Amino acid sequence: MTTPTWFDPRIENALIEHVSPEDEQGYFVYQLDALKAYLATLQQQDVIKLWFAVKANPLSKVIQTLDHAGFDFDVASAGELTQVLAQGVDPGRVLNTGPAKSKPQLAAFVKKGVNTFVVESLNQLNWLNEVVLEQAISVDKVVKPKVLLRVQLQWPEGEKNPLGGNSLTPFGLSVSEWQNIHVDSYPALNLCGLHIFQWGNMLSNEKMFSLWSQMVPPLSDLADRIGMTLEVLDLGGGLGIDYLAQGQMLSWSQVIEDLAVIKEKAGVKELWLELGRFAVAECGYYVVPVVDRKMNYGQEQLVLAAGINHLLRPAITDQPFPVKLLRAGQTDDVTSTQAFDLHGPLCTSMDTLGHFDLPNDIAVGEKLVFGYCGAYGFTESMPFFLCHELAAEYVYQDDQLTQVRAAKPASSYLA
Ligand SMILES: Cc1ncc(COP(=O)(O)O)c(C=O)c1O
Predict the structure, then answer these.
(1) DSSP letter string over 131-170?
(2) CA–CA separation, 356 vs 339, rounded Å?
(3) What is the pLDDT of residue 158?
(4) Residue 322: CB within 6 Å of ligand 1?
(5) Strands 400-405, 352-359: pairing kind
(6) CA distances, 94 to each of 5, 76, 112, 280, 315 (Å)
(7) pLDDT in tens, 184-219
(8) Beta strands 146-150 and 299-304: pairing type?
């Protein structure tokens, strides 16, 4: 098999040589030197401010690498905030997004020093205003947080997408709901921007530009109606990864060119993106052994030590992570492959990691490596079902594989 584009051959020997009984149910590896170099290329522009959407990968070492690369942090829960602050990040570099912010959570975030919020409901807006006033030492000493309103638009042509696309979601509010407020009614808040993000894993520069362009007029109009000077426009994430090897890759330089146009059209001082997948997917791998191989109704099946208990995404998106066999001296002979169904150990037919061509002599005990697992891998899984092990996480840096989290048996979480 030829080396796929998603696989960095520099890591191959380390993965082949890594033999550990604790990791026989699968482990993750993140290639930090490669991540660092890649993030530096993302930062070579002055059009957009980049935040890292922590949900994509909250591992300490990953957050630290993003921190050193000059990213700030989008957190969507108290757990993510704690993890980011534990890495020494100043709370002033944290943005809080998410549809489930209670008043106590907003109060706790403000108390910890977070001062940038994306609010997603009228309640959140009112609660945040109240919380800031309640915590101020005096009325004239209010530290106003920066606040962006999250807007949800609908397009006539309609399309579904994991982030909602055109369907109704709890992410933000429609223009007709927001237009009834006025910024002057929230004296404790610096209502300075709008946030919009409805399309995930976009692979076409043209389509992204077209969607972004269509967003500008209704957003500018909304800002005018509510008395907001639109200083910040946050376009969320959504930049895609070619999981299915369809030859569709986003061009970053084109993204920057397009966003310069959007920034100009919207007339904003700052344009923000919160990157998840596009920042970290490529640096991560997941390695798992084959525990059984069988022919069933004419179909070759491989049963793996772990499946959606460690990598849930394929089951919820129908997009498998790409895979290859880890084998020393694997040749480029493409004629010796055949199609396999890959299954995990759970007692549900949903536990499948895809249908792939792999070498036909693949044997029980050999290991597969999945790519693009640096985002939405370890923490977007369902590890508890059937009492399997929690996966270990490693980083690969300076030619060394270092364990950050050890694998944990079910006894560590069962009561
Ligand atoms: C508010 C917000 N911003 C950014 C992201 C990151 O998206 P992506 O991984 O597509 O870059 C998400 C993902 O769900 C999100 O909810």
Answers:
(1) HHHHHSSSGGG--PPEEEEEB----TT----TT-TTS--S
(2) 5
(3) 56
(4) no
(5) unpaired
(6) 34, 10, 10, 18, 31
(7) 999 999 999 999 998 889 999 999 999 999 999 999
(8) unpaired
**Nearest-CA neighbor of 313 among 355, 262, 372, 235?**
372
Place of tokens 């998106």: 317
**3 state SS of 14:** helix
Q: Tokens in use for 43?
A: 């930062």
Task: Write down how long the chain is.
Answer: 415
Q: Which of 101, 163, 202 to mutate to test the pocket of ligand 1 (most atoms within 8 A of CB)?
A: 163
Tell me how far the alpha carbon of residue 305 lies from the centroid of ligand 1, in angstroms. Answer: 30
CB 131 within 8 A of CB 103: yes
First CA to last CA distance, the chain: 46
- Tell me the two tokens of residue 45: 């522009």
Token pair, residue 41, equals: 């290329």
pLDDT tens per residue, range 349-378: 999 999 999 999 999 999 999 999 999 999
74 lines ligand 1 (CB under 6 A): yes
Cβ proximity of 402 and 395 under 8 Å: yes
Does residue 73 have its Cβ closer than 6 Å to ligand 1?
no
Q: What is the pLDDT at residue 142?
A: 79
Q: Are strands 116-119 and 146-150 parallel, antiparallel or unpaired?
A: parallel
Q: CA gyration radius for the chain?
A: 23
d(CA 287, CA 392): 10
Q: Residue 357 belongs to what H/E stretch?
A: strand 352-359
Q: Which domains does the chain have, with CATH numbers?
A: 9-28+282-412 (2.40.37.10), 90-275 (3.20.20.10)
Task: State the sign of the Cα–Cα–Cα–Cα dihedral 52, 314, 31, 406.
Answer: positive
Q: Which residues of the chain have pLDDT under 50?
A: 162
pLDDT at 332: 52
**Atom nearest to 240 CA in ligand 1:** 10
Q: Where do runs of H (alpha helix) occur along 70-229?
A: 78-86, 103-111, 122-135, 175-178, 205-225
Report the pLDDT value the prediction gives residue 56, as an integer from 0 to 100: 98
Query: Using CA positions, which residue lies closest to atom 16 of ligand 1?
Result: 98
Compute, in angstroms, the gap from residue 304 CA to the centroid of ligand 1: 30
Atom of ligand 1 nearest to the CA of 56: 9
> 274 CB less than 6 Å from ligand 1?
yes
Residue 143, phi then psi, degrees to nearest 5: -95, 105
Residue 237 neighbours by CB distance under 10 Å: 25
